[in-house]
Amino acid sequence: MSAGSGNASMRPIRETLPLDEALALVLEAASPMTRTERVPLREATGRIIAAAAVAAVDVPPFDRAAMDGFAVVAEDTFGAGRYDPKILRCIEKVYTGEVPTKRLARGECTEIATGAPMPDGADAVVMVEESDKAGDDVRIFTPVYPRQHVGRRAADIAAGQSVLAAGDFLNASRVGALAAIGGVDVEVFAKPTVAILSTGNEIIEPGSPLRPGQIYDINHFTITSVVQSHGGIAIAYPPAPDNLPDLVAAIRQAAEADIVVFSGGSSVGERDLILDAIQQIGEVIFLGIAVKPGKPTVFGRVGTTPVFGMPGYPTSCLSNAYMLLLPMLRRMARLPEFRPQIVTAPLARRVVSTTGRHQFYTVRIENGTAVPAFKASGDITSMSLADGYIEIPAQTDIVEAGELVDVKLF
Amino acid sequence: MSAGSGNASMRPIRETLPLDEALALVLEAASPMTRTERVPLREATGRIIAAAAVAAVDVPPFDRAAMDGFAVVAEDTFGAGRYDPKILRCIEKVYTGEVPTKRLARGECTEIATGAPMPDGADAVVMVEESDKAGDDVRIFTPVYPRQHVGRRAADIAAGQSVLAAGDFLNASRVGALAAIGGVDVEVFAKPTVAILSTGNEIIEPGSPLRPGQIYDINHFTITSVVQSHGGIAIAYPPAPDNLPDLVAAIRQAAEADIVVFSGGSSVGERDLILDAIQQIGEVIFLGIAVKPGKPTVFGRVGTTPVFGMPGYPTSCLSNAYMLLLPMLRRMARLPEFRPQIVTAPLARRVVSTTGRHQFYTVRIENGTAVPAFKASGDITSMSLADGYIEIPAQTDIVEAGELVDVKLF
After folding, report:
1. Can you tell me whether residue A351 is helix, strand or coil?
2. What is the rounded average pLDDT of the residues A19-36?
């Protein structure tokens, strides 16, 4: 936007908040979603179910054979042996998906496939391997006890039982449990929408040729990527205007989303304009965090909508998205806390950190060591050529070569 | 399908393969995708780039101010101090997105915003905090060295440089790197398609009321979920027919996908039919794995397409999908190996395992202990009510209460 028209309008950030305090404030402003929507079961994976799912049916809905073989009256098989078989008369054959039509009497059996309903009168199944059929006569070589090889009605789920609780994360088996009780679709919490606005007159969308003084928008894409990967819907907004009334109007509109993220512009003047706009129609919660990179970050609220003003430098913007936006988004989406994969490795070279600022420091894993990959906050390659990052606490100045560090993989 | 019309057609599984050997055979049959497709950058997260991305432009494309302040000739500031400022004449003001029009001479400066191009003649920036402007006179309170607070052209990426290599996973910063060089879309490897076929006459799709003897299809949904979560596209096929010629035709058609997964039917007769069909037009690679649950698993190939015949019981089917289909799918999708989150906890109760079979045993985490959650292979609640699973090696019979186990979270 503007190159500050003098010192009066430039308010450099002097007070900064420790990262943990900033994160606490961000999480405090994160209200878990209450909006819900109905999605087909085939598209429900990764979503959060909004209400308990209660079975209207028994699963399985009938006693069924758990093995291929012969449904019998268990007592008829007592004493059977390989050289002393019991002989039963086969009265019917039941395939899966069919229903037995004949009730078993003593001395009788029904040939049955795994999953087929047990005939009335039968209380066990003899495995086919333990039998020999010749005509209607079936020789039984082993005794079975009552209920052996029978899957009992409602053994998996009983009608009236709650198979999932509100708030459960829908993984494969839980989607399966909904299918088991006949679900076709499911009510889930809506994904938080995130309005992403670029600022900065130098920023243009990839696709057009660069004119002198212009660079391509990076932050829009990195924020979109983080949002999509952590349960949100990224909504692209037009670039933010560079005068206060229009910016206020733009923020008002963007605040219809669940979260607003400004990204782009990096100068003190631009930050001030966003600050003024938030103050005019909302509340600034903090301004500046003791992190490196990423210090000049504004966080506030317009109505109930949290608003981030991310620093313009791509690495600063993205590292703050990982450290602040991601946890907020997941909490609002009701997703479990994110745990990045961690690789512990010795640091290949000494790293000197800025005292008093929590440092997000990118590294590559090479030959089992963590090799510093950070160039400058303005360089997206500081992150894109890295495998992950280490965090250096505010009170630590130096991490020596050879020290073991926990690398959080991207 | 059929309830085996006698022992002759029933071939119970007697030879089983250890899990690691089965997995090796499955991975051997997994050819990484060579098909590619073009996707917009906004939808590229999580995909694998198919060719190196080479920059056509320098990023940044010009020397730029890294701070708000004044572009100067560094030498003009040497010796400046708070009580001994140097005074320079401001000749221009440059906003971001603009281009300086005046070349700096000694004794002159240009007011400049972060990100704006440096004027010719200038070689450093004095931060606004270290200056004081009155009219055109700017007092400079600190010396700067050449290139201080200047972001140099191509410092991030130089034209001709490869910013990503073929096969790189597109995370947020890598999508950002593509945006930085002006990318609008990107060529990525296509996702493997997985044809999912249900078998079993008792299986019906959720949505219709159950008739006697019927149950709802679960495996179709659990497999779909695993496929979608690990880089594949699940394609629903009509239920597999229950006669050999039609089944052969169905497999031929399904084999146009990159992977075929049969799921559902559980009887020996059904397995045999799938086996016969695969043998008729392809090759059976193995039949039966020494795992529990999940032993009766068929794996083969039709043309170059791997074909799984998963056991019908929901837990058996899904645990095998985790142990075999998931690694195959990720290898074909060129995704990094999956590492589930692991929680180490003491086992709450003794678990007795089947000797000679690798056991996949579900548990819940309760009060920091791993509580056995497994009911029966037929019960989807064995998994849906669990938080994860432990694996008990084939040679281990018993895991005692209190022993520490690694729980792989779902």
Report:
1. strand
2. 96
∠ CA A320-A321-A327, nearest 5°, is: 105
The ranges assigned to domains in chain B are 7-34+191-333, 37-59+165-189, 64-151, 342-409
Set of chain B residues whose Cβ sits within 8 Å of the Cβ of A98:
201, 213
Residue A280, pLDDT score: 94
Reduce the secondary structure of B44-79 to three states and give it as a string. Answer: CCCCEECCCEECCCCECCCCEECCCEEEECHHHHCC
Distance (Å, whole) CA B389 – CA B370: 9
> Which pTM does this prediction carry?
0.92
Residues of chain B contacting residue A236, judged by C-beta atoms under 8 Å apart? 42
Question: What's the pLDDT score for residue A265?
Answer: 56
pLDDT at A349 over 60: yes
Give the CA angle between residues B183, B185, B188 to the nearest 5°. 115
pLDDT along chain B (410 residues), means of 10: 36 72 96 98 98 96 94 97 96 92 97 94 96 96 97 96 97 98 97 92 90 94 98 91 86 96 68 85 92 90 95 93 97 95 95 89 96 92 96 93 96
- Give the whole-angstrom CA distance, residue B174 versus residue B186: 11
Q: Tell me which CATH code domain A47-59+157-189 carries.
A: 3.90.105.10
Task: For residue A14, give both structure tokens.
Answer: 């002097």
Q: Which of residues 339-398 of A touch B (CB under 8 A)?
A: 339, 341, 375-376, 378-381, 383-384, 386
Interface test with B, best of A43, A54, A199, A202 (most B CBs within 10 A): A202
Question: What is the CATH architecture assignment of B37-59+165-189?
Answer: Alpha-Beta Complex (3.90)
Please, where are the H alpha helices in B64-218?
172-180
Q: Which residues of A touch B12 (CB under 8 A)?
A: 128-129
> Does A13 touch chain B if contact means CB atoms closer than 8 Å?
no
Assign A264 a pLDDT band (cuts: 50, 70, 90).
low
Q: Closest Cα to residue B64, out of A102, A220, A212, A193?
A: A212
3-state helix, strand, coil in chain B (%, to 5): 20, 30, 45
Taking each helix axis from N to C end, the angle separating A219-229 and B172-180, rounded to the nearest 10 degrees, works out to 160
The tokens describing A192, both together, are: 């938080």
Residue A133 has pLDDT above 80, yes or no: yes
Instruction: Choose from B94, B215, B230, B409 for mutation: most chain A CBs within 10 A.
Output: B215
Strand, coil or helix: what is A115? coil
Q: Which candidate in B9, B96, B364 is best for mutational testing of the A interface (most A CBs within 10 A)?
A: B96
Q: Which residues of A touch B173 (CB under 8 A)?
A: 222, 314-315, 318, 380, 383-384, 386, 410
Full 3-state SS string of B131-145 = EEEECCEEEECCCCC
Please report the ipTM that was assigned to this predicted complex.
Answer: 0.92
CA–CA separation, B179 vs A41, rounded Å? 35
A84-88, A206-210, B235-239 — most confident range: A84-88
CATH node for A342-409: 2.40.340.10
Is A162 in the B-facing interface, judged by CB distances under 8 Å? no
Tokens representing B266 are 């559980």
Q: Which CATH superfamily is domain A7-34+191-333 in?
A: MoaB/Mog-like domain (3.40.980.10)
Q: A213 contacts in B (CB within 8 Å)?
A: 62, 96-99, 116-117
Residue A369 has pLDDT above 70, yes or no: yes
CATH superfamily ID and name for A64-151: Molybdopterin biosynthesis moea protein, domain 3. (2.170.190.11)
User: Helices A244-254 and A268-281: crossing angle, nearest 10°?
Assistant: 60
- A-chain residue closest to B173, CA distance: A384
- Give A111's strand partners: A70, A93
